[in-house]
What we know:
The structure holds two protein chains of two kinds.
Chain A (H helix, E strand, L loop, with lengths): L3 E10 L2 E11 L4 E5 L6 H8 L7 E6 L2 E2 L5 H7 L1 E3 L12 H12 L10 H18 L14 H13 L5 E5 L7 H16 L4 E5 L3 H7 L2 E6 L2 E6 L1 H6 L1 H8 L4
Parallel strand pairs in A: 3-8, 3-9, 6-7, 7-8
Antiparallel strand pairs in A: 1-2, 1-4, 4-5, 9-10
Helix pairs in contact in A: 3-4, 3-5, 4-5
Chain B lengths: L1 H34 L1 H4 L7 H21 L9 H19 L3 H23 L4 H21 L1 H4 L13 E2 L4 E2 L3 H23 L2 H17 L5 H27 L9 H14 L6 H17 L5 H15 L3 H11 L1
Antiparallel strand pairs in B: 1-2
Helix pairs in contact in B: 3-8, 3-10, 3-11, 3-12, 4-5, 4-6, 4-10, 5-6, 5-10, 8-10, 9-10, 11-12, 11-14, 12-13
Subcellular location (chain B): Cell membrane
Pfam family, one (chain B): BPD_transp_2
Protein name (chain B): Amino acid/amide ABC transporter membrane protein 2, HAAT family
Amino acid sequence: MSLLVLNDVGRRFGALQALSGISLSVEAGELRAIIGPNGAGKTTLFNLISGYFPPTDGSIVFGGEPITAGTPTALVKRGIIRTFQITEIFLSLTVRENLRVAVETAMGLNLRPWISAAVRTVVMNQVENLAEIVRITAKLDRVAGELSHGDQRVVEIGIVLAKSPKLLLLDEPTAGMGDEETHHMTDLIRRLNKDQGITMLFVEHDMAIVFGIADRITVLDNGRMLAEGNATEIAANPRVQAAYLGHAA
Amino acid sequence: MSTDLATETARTAPQARTGMSRRTIGNVVLGVVLLTVPLWLPLVGGYTDLASRVLIYALAAMGLNLLLGFTGGLSFGHAAYFGLGAYGVGLMLKYETHSLFLALGVGTLVGGLAATLLGPIAVRRRGIYFSMITIAIGQMFYFIAIRWNTLTGGYDGLSGFARPKFAGPGHLLSMGPTGMYYLVLAAFAIAALLLWIVLNAPLGHAFVAIRENHKRLTFLGVSTQRYIAISFAISGFIAALAGGLNALLDGFASPNLLNYSMSGDFLIIAVLGGMRNFYGPLAGAVIFVLVRDYVSSVTDNWMSVIGLVFVVSVIFFPMGVLGFFNRKSGS
């Protein structure tokens, strides 16, 4: 059974039809890239899946249950977690504090006005685990706002990992990164998918990354689905070539 | 990996140790200074009631600062909860009881419950709209106080109650300035300790995370409004306790205690001292009350001087007085 299914999903903003007729299904364990030119509707699609706003047409099913009208909070509880195009972390806190509040949220401790030393230890161990997974241990005591852009994105991934996501949505995870940072992030995405078995959807502009790591690729253009397939199929698709290279093909 | 861990420990451990001991020393010094105020304050030309006022304002501003500095909610209406605490204590002592603690308890409860019930309305909005709602709610209590003459004394304020004697071990202690000061200090210490515990627990971490980035927290599945409302309620209880103590100190409750200008005073105190700093409001209250006391003996225009001090400090020490010194000693 597919983990995520979109049936003929569309979204209008007043007169603007941002997305229409999107039908796709993502299998559990899949690493799926969403690509398309600017304005194709990639972020809108993420916003629909993560409950930022509801679709105006169609339905969304996650783990066999309808989530079309889900709020972000409700969808996070089901295991759909996202990152944003602009990194959203807690800038004036240390990396450790960033991860700590995420772990406490994941453990359902947020309302506790005090905790025992034992629970505190469990929290801090989990923070160390997360730091190991995303490989930021050496910078745990640095203030997040003083880190490089790439490291801040890594911190954000660490934060969302705390919630043990079933489906992770990454919006342009390597945007604005240098070569080394991009390599680190790509490696991280692949490890999370293969080692932790997390199903992922990511929006990406760098075709080398997309063709290098994605199991399948969905191409959007002008709010519609243009194509879907593996890297070879997409690279050979004349409609995709037309959308990216103009009408030469 | 074990080498990684070893170097990591070597790098952070000494820093953590000096940080810890510096904080402990700071708390001990502060404790000794505050406990001995009645002994040394007269020697430097002060009087004990002035120190009580400093601690009362510091307490109210610390409560406000849980919401302002640690949760990121700018309330312009905390005078309402301060004033409700004051009127609560005044009315209890005037009509109902001679028990100091019962009166103080009821006053704190009245102001705190008002914040608990009204906070959820204000937190439905963020930013400037949140602040506007807090002003509107606050002014509502001010106008009730000046119109409800028969109960509150209207514009003239509520008088006709006095500090009751304090039931000490085996006999009644009269509550002179010194006794009053230690009552205020005890309340301040308990509230500060509770705040410290909360801020170092997951609840406090959630507050700070909301201040930093409420969107991130929302997308971790936290309904942030609820947490801002909890912060609002706690800060309201502390402001009400401070207001109750203020009524005991003066034997009087003025409607001005409920007014938004009083809320502004608490904001000035928190920002002046350093709102990202736990003891910032205490530093702010020391400056605010001393400047007011000294300048108002020279000119009625003391508010202009406070305003000038505030503007200069915001321009030169945007993180407040304590924020400034912390950064200097930190780097």
